[in-house]
Amino acid sequence: MQTNVRIQLLEAFSNANGEFISGQALAEIIGCSRTAVWKHIEDLRKEGFELEAVRKKGYRILHAPDKVTENEILIGLQTKRLGKQVHFVETVDSTQKEAHRISQDGCMEGTLVIAEEQTAGRGRMARNWHSPKYTGIWMSIILKPELPPYRAPQFTLIAAVAIVEAVEEITGIQPEIKWPNDLLIKGKKITGILTELQADADQIHALIIGIGMNVNQSEFPKEIEKIATSLAIEKGEKISRALLIQRILEKLEFYYEMYVEEGFYPIKQLWEKYAISIGKQIIARTINKEIKGKAIGITDDGVLKLKDENGVIHEIYSADIELGS
């Protein structure tokens, strides 16, 4: 199915809110014959969509499959830019690497790179990320903010707030944020965020936010089962990945626009509200040293502030954080 026709068709069904749309109306919307509409409907059925056809009423979608391909993400997506262009790959080494590749070739802002499986998923500090097929959300979003590179680190925190709120709306579960880029439920990791740049000294060309989320896994490899969990494990039921992706994109677009227009302060307040470590004793392990103290907040640049036992406030730019006793 051609991409522009697919987008028009899925947007038409989305705007119908479950009501029937006549074949003639669909033909007018997408600019083709009713026979062509029928062929496009059959293409959707082959991709796993359950559609009802009633004579003199038309068509409506009853059920969308739990996939994360372009069709499933576009139907019902309420954004202006983010996710309007979807680059789907069934299996990829890393969505982050793929996003870098297509960004360098030129793509529109908001392009979403997503896969059902990563063979070399990676997190911060080049750590591996377990990314099994058909269970999680493995995606990267390409933004092109007209901002200097020093404002890039805040986007990891902006994404964290957006994801927390999206997860809470879809599942009723509110994750906690562990600085700088992890989301936890009951102390176990469900999400990692990786923000990378393509930039000159004074201008961001592309900012790529990678998100790895454990959604419908029922178990984990032995080496990570004590530190990782999934939304399905915590909720006790499977979650619609496509719906969650849509909500993440919608929330991220909202906070992205807020940041550009109002600055980081309102988002900073939300981040601190959701953070697991603020007000608690932590251990920050940097490359050179280990600092113990109380996490007292973050700066307007997203830098963690830690107050040690002598009352000295340290600004932590990069470190592994462990909650103290």
TrEMBL record:
One of its GO terms (biological process) is regulation of DNA-templated transcription. Transmembrane segments: none annotated. InterPro entries: aa-tRNA-synth_II/BPL/LPL, Bifunct_BirA, Biotin_CoA_COase_ligase, BPL_C, BPL_LPL_catalytic, HTH_11, Transcriptional_repressor_C, WH-like_DNA-bd_sf. One of its GO terms (molecular function) is DNA binding. Biotin binds at Q118, R122, G123, R124, K189. Residues 74-260 form the BPL/LPL catalytic domain. Keywords: ATP-binding, Biotin, DNA-binding, Ligase, Nucleotide-binding, Repressor, Transcription, Transcription regulation. Pfam families: BPL_C (PF02237), BPL_LplA_LipB (PF03099), HTH_11 (PF08279). Its EC number is 6.3.4.15. Residues 23-42 bind DNA. It is an enzyme of class 6 (ligase). One of its GO terms (cellular component) is cytoplasm. Gene3D superfamilies: 2.30.30.100, Bira Bifunctional Protein, Domain 2, Winged helix-like DNA-binding domain superfamily/Winged helix DNA-binding domain. Coiled coil: none annotated. The keyword Transcription applies. It catalyses: biotin + L-lysyl-[protein] + ATP = N(6)-biotinyl-L-lysyl-[protein] + AMP + diphosphate + H(+). HAMAP family: Bifunct_BirA. Belongs to the biotin--protein ligase family. Acts both as a biotin--[acetyl-CoA-carboxylase] ligase and a repressor. This is Bifunctional ligase/repressor BirA. It comes from Oikeobacillus pervagus. The lineage of its organism: Bacteria, Bacillati, Bacillota, Bacilli, Bacillales.
